[in-house]
Amino acid sequence: MKKVNILGVYVDTATISEAAERIMGFLKEDRFHSVYTPNSEIIMEAYYKPEFAKLLNRADLLTADGIGVVYASKFLKEPIEERAAGYDIARNVLSQLKDTDHKLFLFGGKPGVAEEAKRRLEKEYPGIKIAGIRNGYFKPEEEEDIVRQINNSGADILFVCLGAPKQEKWTDAHRNELKVKVAMGIGGSLDVFANRVERAPKFYRKHGLEWLFRLKKEPWRYKRMMALPKFAATVFMKGKRYKQP
Fold it and tell me: What's the CA gap between 96 and 36, in Å, rounded?
């Protein structure tokens, strides 16, 4: 799979369907795989923090979860065909998992969210096997028990929904302990699965305006949105030859 260097983060050019197929392929391999979906904000964090960039680049699959990343790839003359958001990839994977014996573990969200997500997903995808759930509120000393709970569930695939960059750091820190074959960091997807958060309508997603929909719903996000122009300016100045120090 081709990758494009965006400020030192090597993002796969995979589409949603291609990413889902790769993940289903990972389930056939007897080892751990990590999957992350960085947006412009996360890539900017990696730009300022080389250790975090190295963490992202250790992933088995990195897809463009942000229209800014797609635009950056086009500016760099190595275009990514479409925005491959974690939520959309997860939906594609779920539609395939329901017809297999593979088991899923849901990790993240406020207390009660994972339970509701499990209930709704089992109704929407008859045959899906959700082996366990755990909310995303925990103390450092509880992490060993969480890993043990995931491993004891017999799950093959883990949805880590702690928000970025916490979910990527948590997954990487436990990559040698987890027995799952795939761990996917998919942010607030559990809240959407549980119908606690409304996803942007199709019009916004199609035109790369999901950020605007979120800003209208949550005006406090404006500070985070400031990363977008910084990202665009940095890509313009640094170009595709930039490498992490």
Answer: 19
Candidates 113, 152, 153, 151; CA nearest to 135 is 113
State the pLDDT at residue 202: 77
Question: For position 38, what pLDDT does the model report?
Answer: 97
Length, in residues, of the chain: 245
Q: What is the pLDDT of residue 84?
A: 96
Cα separation of 231 and 178, whole Å? 33
Alpha helices in the chain (DSSP H): 16-26, 40-48, 50-57, 67-75, 86-97, 113-124, 143-152, 166-173, 189-193, 202-206, 210-217, 222-225, 227-238
The pLDDT tens digits for 92-132 are 999 999 999 999 999 999 999 999 999 999 999 999 999 99
What backbone torsions phi and psi does residue 24 show, to the nearest 5 degrees?
Answer: -65, -35
Could you tell me the two tokens for 28?
A: 């056939």
CA dist 39 and 65 (Å) reads 5
**Residue 229: what pLDDT?**
85
CB atoms near residue 59 (< 10 Å):
24
Taking 3-state DSSP, the helix, strand and coil percentages for the chain, each rounded to the nearest 5, stand at 50, 15, 35
CA distance 99 to 102: 9
Amino acid at 212: L
Enter the pTM of the model.
0.91
CA distances from 130 to 94, 105, 107, 117, 146 (A): 11, 6, 11, 10, 16
- Beta partners for 104? 130, 157
Nearest Cα to 55, choosing from 71, 42, 69, 41?
42
Task: Give residue-wise pLDDT tens across range 61-71.
Answer: 999 998 999 99
